[in-house]
């Protein structure tokens, strides 16, 4: 088999890149380890930056998002029982975010790929990358018990944090930066109306809480839990009680509870692998970086990587601009590190850290107080939350 771009991983990064390439007439094949149902069923992100919204429209998959997604022009941050409104649109010259679940984005992209007739191998196992330093790399894998070989010009490693693409870069080339936080997020998905029109990020002495949503009838709530907590120890009742305790009283009083339709604990981690390119391999999305979800940046960073790689590959295939290939990693990493910084900062300000001494705790509380009470502070927060601009290629 031969294609122009081999894409490892059929999550949001791989599917979105595949869709953009397909529309530009650049052939591509996706190799995905899981089944389509498994990929469709993953419950994850839900806040899309304006840049990602525009990219989905450009990829021709924005129709349902525009019809069903919720445009949010603000968020709230609650601390010490007080609620502060961050006027995202007012502070950023009209920018907003879109509430539309990653599950829905994935579903739209999978439907578009199926309609385009592009080739996807689900349940591809033993995926291995070869010849990255050559002009003709190739990928081997197993499908339905048969060994397969896919020759290509370029490989996009879109296979997430636990994938094989990053591991194909020699250890002496790859530099890894990592911080593991001493807590995780316990998340509950429920068919209940949202407690508030906007998302609420709540800092509380018992720990952080987030009131998010997927639609006017489906909510996603989180509470910070210690590392090592087990989801089976959290009954629905215990979860709702804990969430109410951490919210300002007026919100807690009107919180509608219901049975959890999904409940899971996600560990929090910051991680960056540099460089994001090695020879003909390009790492995209979670394969190269992870952020704690506090800034709602994981999926959005994956989209900005896709945008950069697509722009470069389009120039390569349409105008022979192979000189641009070397720009991929530095261009992505500039934006990645800014999102890493924002996600780390939001996490540091809003969560309880068990090891903080009394002085550090006061500084942390004061930092939050300063950023919420100053317009310059709120503007900084808003500018990062709606997403920094995508860099143009030169
Ligand atoms: P992935 O979604 O991980 O997709 C990678 C794909 O590659 C998968 O389909 C996988 O099956 C496939 N794959 C892996 N290994 C192989 C292999 N060897 N061969 C072939 N295929 C392979 N972000 C936010 O912005 N907000 C949130 O609230 C949020 N919540 C999250 C909650 C959880 C539990 C997790 C795990 C992530 C969350 N994220 C959140 C992050 C966000 O979901 C990711 O940033 C996003 O999914 C990245 O997309 P991706 O396509 O790069 O990687």
Mean pLDDT: 96
Strand arrangement within the widest β-sheet reads 6-5-14-15-16-13-17-20
Strand tally is 20
Major beta sheet, specifics? 8 strands, mixed
State the CATH architecture of the domain at 5-71 and 97-177 and 268-351: 3-Layer(bba) Sandwich
CATH superfamily caption of the domain at 5-71 and 97-177 and 268-351: FAD/NAD(P)-binding domain
Helix content: 25-40%
User: In what range is the share of β-strand residues?
Assistant: 25-35%
Could you name the ranges where pLDDT drops below 50 across 5 or more consecutive residues?
A: none
> Any idea what the shape is?
globular
Number of helices: 12
- Rg over alpha carbons: 21 Å
Bound heterogens, unique: flavin-adenine dinucleotide
Walk me through the structure.
The protein is α+β, with helices and mostly antiparallel strands and 394 residues long. It has a domain at 5-71 and 97-177 and 268-351: FAD/NAD(P)-binding domain (3-Layer(bba) Sandwich). The chain has twelve helices and 20 strands. The protein has helices spanning 12-23, 36-41, 50-58, 63-68, 88-91, 102-116, 236-246, 249-254, 298-319, 328-350, 358-373, 375-386; strands at residues 5-8, 28-31, 47-48, 70-72, 75-79, 82-86, 97-99, 119-121, 125-130, 138-143, 146-151, 154-157, 175-190, 200-203, 209-215, 218-226, 260-274, 277-278, 281-283, 289-290. The chain has an eight-stranded mixed β-sheet. It has a six-stranded mixed β-sheet with strand order 8-2-1-12-19-18, with helices on one face. The protein has a three-stranded antiparallel β-sheet with strand order 3-7-4. The longest helix is centred in the last third of the chain and has 23 residues, at 328-350. The structure holds flavin-adenine dinucleotide. The site of flavin-adenine dinucleotide has 34 residues, from helix 1 and helix 9. Residues 8-14, 31-34, 39, 44-46, 102, 124, 127, 158-160, 162-164, 266, 285-286, 293, 296-300, 302 line the site of flavin-adenine dinucleotide.
């Amino acid at each position: 088999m031969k294609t122009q771009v081999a894409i490892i991983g059929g999550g949001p990064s791989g599917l979105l890149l595949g869709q953009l390439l397909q529309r530009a007439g650049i052939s591509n094949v996706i190799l995905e380890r899981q089944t389509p149902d498994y990929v469709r069923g993953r419950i994850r992100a839900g806040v899309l930056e304006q840049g990602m919204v525009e990219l989905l429209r450009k990829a021709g998959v924005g129709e349902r998002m525009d019809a069903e997604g919720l445009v949010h022009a603000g968020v709230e941050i609650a601390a010490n029982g007080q609620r502060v409104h961050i006027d995202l649109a007012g502070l950023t010259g009209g920018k907003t975010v879109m509430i539309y679940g990653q599950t829905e984005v994935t579903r739209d992209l999978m439907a578009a790929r199926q309609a385009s007739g592009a080739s996807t191998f689900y349940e591809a196992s033993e995926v291995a990358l070869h010849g990255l330093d050559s002009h003709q790399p190739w990928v081997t894998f197993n499908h339905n018990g048969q060994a397969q070989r896919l020759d290509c010009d370029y490989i996009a490693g879109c296979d997430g944090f636990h994938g094989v693409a990053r591991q194909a870069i020699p250890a002496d080339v790859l530099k890894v930066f990592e911080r593991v936080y001493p807590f995780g997020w316990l998340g509950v998905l429920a068919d209940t109306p949202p407690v508030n029109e906007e998302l609420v990020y709540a800092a509380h002495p018992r720990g952080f809480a987030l009131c998010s949503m997927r639609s006017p009838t489906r909510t996603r709530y989180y509470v910070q839990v210690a590392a090592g907590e087990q989801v089976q120890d959290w009954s629905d009742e215990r979860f709702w009680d804990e969430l109410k305790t951490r919210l300002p009283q007026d919100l807690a009083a009107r919180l509608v509870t219901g049975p959890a339709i999904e409940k899971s604990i996600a560990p929090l981690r910051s991680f960056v692998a540099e460089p994001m390119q090695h020879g003909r391999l390009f790492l995209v999305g979670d394969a190269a970086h992870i952020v704690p979800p506090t800034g709602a940046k994981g999926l959005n960073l994956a989209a900005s990587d896709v945008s950069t790689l697509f722009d470069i590959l389009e120039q390569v295939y349409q105008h022979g601009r192979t000189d641009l290939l070397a720009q991929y990693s530095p261009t992505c990493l500039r934006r990645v590190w800014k999102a890493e910084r924002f996600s780390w900062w939001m996490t540091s300000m809003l969560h309880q850290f068990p090891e903080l001494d009394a002085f550090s705790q006061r500084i942390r509380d004061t930092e939050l107080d300063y950023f919420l009470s100053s317009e310059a502070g709120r503007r900084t927060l808003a500018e990062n939350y709606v997403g920094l601009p995508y860099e143009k290629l030169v």
